Task: inverse folding
């Protein structure tokens, strides 16, 4: 049965390329227990948006696979590393805006969806590497079966990750330690993406072939400089946020003056 073979291929390729995605989903659901804008809905929506982008790139990419190699996508693993560092900064540098219970749900929701979608796309390098050659040799009917099966299985993946987080013992530990563990998980995810993609050996080998300088040394220095620059900018921004929050807080004299004014009313 051709359709049965296509369905089996879809299930097997999805499982192989998305095992690590369960780890990402559990991380997101863990963050949702302590966050204000990241919710199960935004996580699922972000997953579908990001996965749709991965599939769209895969559909377009098989026609230009020779021109656009998959390995450079691994450098986008720097994004989860920066997200993890930002999470650590939020623990170390608290701002008045973060302590405020008021949250602009509309903007926060879209930001959360964009965040999940971005990480999904970044982690989709291995998916693209599998889907591009798969789609290139498949018929239109097979591709349709692949797409339907992928979207259904993505919902199953989200449900499994959510059910893991519903276990009381797991949830109790998550509520206690998630704010500390999640940033580290993001950083580990970024490193995993770059290692799996082999982006450093790929670009380092090209640099070695064209110059007399060690490609890995150049990439190491460049990556370090980039991360230090981004980290410095994040620290400055968080400190600026805190200073702005402190300036916006009413002083004791101002509060006393308001009380005096109220007493004359």
Result:
């Amino acid at each position: 049965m051709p359709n049965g073979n296509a369905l089996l291929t879809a299930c097997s390729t999805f499982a192989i390329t998305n095992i690590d995605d369960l780890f990402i989903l559990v991380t997101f659901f863990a963050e949702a227990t302590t966050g204000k804008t990241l919710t199960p809905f935004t996580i699922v929506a972000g997953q579908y948006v990001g996965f749709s982008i991965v599939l769209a790139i895969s559909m377009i990419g098989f026609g230009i696979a020779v021109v656009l190699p998959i390995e450079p996508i691994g450098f986008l693993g720097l994004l989860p590393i920066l997200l993890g560092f930002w999470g650590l900064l939020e623990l170390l540098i608290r701002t008045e805006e973060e302590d405020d219970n008021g949250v602009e749900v509309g903007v926060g929701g879209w930001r959360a969806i964009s965040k999940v979608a971005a990480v999904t796309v970044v982690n989709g390098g291995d998916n693209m590497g599998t889907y591009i050659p798969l789609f290139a040799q498949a018929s239109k009917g097979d591709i349709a079966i692949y797409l339907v099966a992928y979207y259904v299985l993505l919902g199953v993946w989200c449900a499994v990750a959510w059910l893991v987080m519903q276990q009381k013992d797991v949830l109790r530990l998550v509520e206690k330690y998630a704010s500390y563990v999640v940033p580290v998980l993001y950083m580990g995810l970024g490193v995993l993406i770059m290692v799996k993609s082999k982006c450093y050996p790929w670009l380092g080998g090209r640099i070695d072939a064209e110059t007399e300088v060690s490609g890995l040394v150049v990439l190491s220095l460049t990556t370090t400089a980039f991360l230090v620059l981004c980290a410095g900018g994040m620290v400055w921004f968080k400190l600026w946020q805190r200073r702005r929050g402190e300036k916006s807080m009413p002083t004791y004299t101002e509060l006393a003056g308001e009380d005096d004014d109220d007493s004359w009313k």
Notes: The radius of gyration is 23 Å.
